[in-house]
Amino acid sequence: MAGPAQNMEAIFCRNGKETAEPVKAQLSGTIPPWLQGTLLRNGPGLFFIGESSYNHWFDGMALIHSFTFKDGEVHYQSKFLRSDTYKKNTTANRIVVTEFGTLAYPEPSKNIFSKAFTYLINTIPDFTDNNIINIVRYGQEYYASSEINYINQINPSTLDTIGRSNYRNYIPLNLATAHPHYDDDGNTYNMGTAIMALTGPKYVIFRVPASASDKEKKRPALSRVEQICSIPFRSTFYPSYIHSFGMTENYIIFVEQALKLDIIRLTTAYIKGVSWGKCLRYDKNDTTLFHVIDRRTGKVARTKFYSDAFVMFHHINAYEEDGHVVFDLITYEDNSLYDMFYLENLRQDIEEFCRANEVLCLPVCQRFVLPLDVDLKDAPSGTNHVKLEGTSATAVLQSDGSMYCTPETLHHGLELPAINYKYNGKKYRFFYGSRMKWSPPSKNITKVDTITKTHIEWLEEDCYPSEPVFVASPSAVDEDDGVILSSVISLNLKKPPFLLVLDAKTLKEIARASLDTTVHMDLHGLFIHHKY
User: Fold this and answer.
1) Is 462 left (phi over 0), alpha (psi -120 to 50) or beta?
2) What would the pLDDT profile of 296-336 be if each residue is shown by its tens digit?
3) What is the pTM of this model?
């Protein structure tokens, strides 16, 4: 057996390959008979085109994966997203479309004046439609999505790209999150940023009804989008970076954080040779502002809730209890996480990589509690208004009527959180995630109990599991009655990739589906239930 690969490039930076026709996995263990459906995954998979290469892992061309469960068997398939960006790059046999961390010019020989003209027609967000982050649902349509104004519809059965939609044709958005929420009726909620809106720059929260798909008229689900509200930027030229948001039964929770997009720098980025990623700035001396929005009326809570500066990508869950909004986040002390994924860093020797990344801040799972039903008329400043039992989170009234919030720490070192989505927006107990350790390099799947503050883990040598996905048992009574699915690749190139199936209660392996084909590290996705 060959030893582990000598650098992280072996699992992150190799060009992926399509598995265009479904292949049957070799199964060990037993797939639960009720597990019938398709796990869709998305992530970067093509990093070298001709003699050109991307600078950052988040730039690679999107590769869509599927694991289909039927009658105790598992079949795998993958295809590159046929975005306009993919077509332009592969036709030119080099990178000609700018991405997050890679600046590209259509013609390398262009002089400064030609570049200036190219900049004018490539002003954000029309750099790319390379949707690498997630798979989202609007109505009954599925889309590959990232944080730009374009989304590409896919066929979840064949993985074929059907065509793209532009948010701006239906709602004034330049950027939108790839992490929407779905209510119990199947309606989709999402939010984004309108940088160039006629009414001024703002954040926009919107809803797409579950019944939005119109197959007969062939109108996309987005044609029935409903704007819930808009919120002005706190700072006109520095909108907050938004990767996700929270949702309860009655509210949307939007965290306006201190990691911001520098619009002034962005407007000149292309001509100055600066990538989109370099236009993000973190102000550690700033504050974090929490917006609580009634998701039916669009009204924003009057009380100003704020906290110290931090960087946040993923919400875990949010819920309401006794007049409070509780929401759990994964936070960082700075934005150095992005730097780790520049390809030059991933190409380092394993030991060098570990030494370099030991200095990176680690994620912290934190709980904030916001008291909404509080009469502040005669309340003295300096008073903590969090009345929930069992939490150390505080919300202290300030002399100006605002509340300064401090969180409770739930867990250290976990990212890519997942829950039983039936508990989304509701009081819950468990969440799952991927936990990365740098020295020695390893990654595991972790289950956290928010009540006891304990956790359990699944770990296998040389293995890197992707984001865990919870699928509930159809007869479930307990919150954690179901399975965890995760696509796993290995540092050991002789070890085949596999789809891991864990008991969600114990994290004990109940099955794995090994593949004699290439599988690439992914980011996010979802599970679609089937009735055969």
Assistant:
1) left
2) 999 999 899 999 999 999 999 999 999 999 999 999 998 88
3) 0.93
